[in-house]
Predict the structure.
Amino acid sequence: MSSRLSRHLCLQDFEATARRRLPRAVFDYIRGGAEEGASLKANRRQFDAWGFRPAALVDTHGRHTCNQVLGDTWSLPLGIAPMGACGLASFRADLAMAAAAAKANIPYVLSGASLLPLERILAINPDTWFQAYLPPEPEAVSALLRRAEVAGCRTLVITADVPVLGYREADIRNGFASPLRPSWRLAWDGLSHPAWLLGTFLRTLWREGMPHFENFGGGRGAPLLSRHAPPRRHQRDRLDWEGVARLRDAWPHRLILKGLLDPEDGRRAAGQGIDAAWISNHGGRQLDGAVAPLTVLREFAAAAPALPLLCDGGVRRGTDILKAMGLGAGQVFIGRPFLYAAVAGGEAGVLHAIELLRVELDRGLALLGCRHVGEVAARLVPEDLGTR
């Protein structure tokens, strides 16, 4: 590991590096939330509502961080969440994260808004999950499902919380749209960050050609940068539970619904044969004011006790993962910090970020008096009670 990477002691350090290296418009696009950022901030605050009550003098020598979910055994109870247009931040970032996840034996979820085709990602990490943004046309949905199955995808994640795109004011102020429209402002933003301009943007143009959104349907989508292409459509407000039932009938492998916050939706998903519910407010990027996932985990577990629960949102520490697992999550996903780690060091940066979390998880289990994550629930108390 390089000395530059070794200076990153926690996930927050990668964000500071990314802020320095990326053009403002790109960094703000990754980091930002919708409107006032209330949900974005709540995702971090949610962890303060719970405290630990460690058990002393417990032999934890044989502890482990392995976790089982959906029939698979992973080395850690964490995974890499889907993020769109990652290649704009770091050269072949999706490949770097997928390769690192395969080496670390944790799940990686490819975004439907990726700039690299799912076939290339599955070739280096056959266990990749694919998060699909379903097009409104039934024939396009069928083409996307066929493509995913032919490529070897066995876990499909359907995005349920983006009927329309959230309102992100920082992107508008920065002139950041989809597709990007060339402007002097964006050009200066790139020129003022020469390492990014040469190492990511121009390198991508040289090695890959003009980036396109590759995974919205059966074929290649719109280019990332175009003065003439119409804005990318985000209108998916026709998807309903009948549509989910049709998807369940059409897709023969594991099907996950992502973006649920109402426990009643979890009960309904279980009734329709969905394999897991992903509790998420989309990283605070959609409905501002939507509750933080951690606050509803226990309600979901009570509403659908047999349904595996996944979650994300503001996770930055191994202790955050332990709290989410203790409250009922079956696997915990992290997004932005892993992309920042790719900016800092490509695949090696992502592996370093995973290792930091592994050490934090192992240390946390030992200090709690737990041998594995299944014992953490008994060590959690509401913070207002735990401080009395």
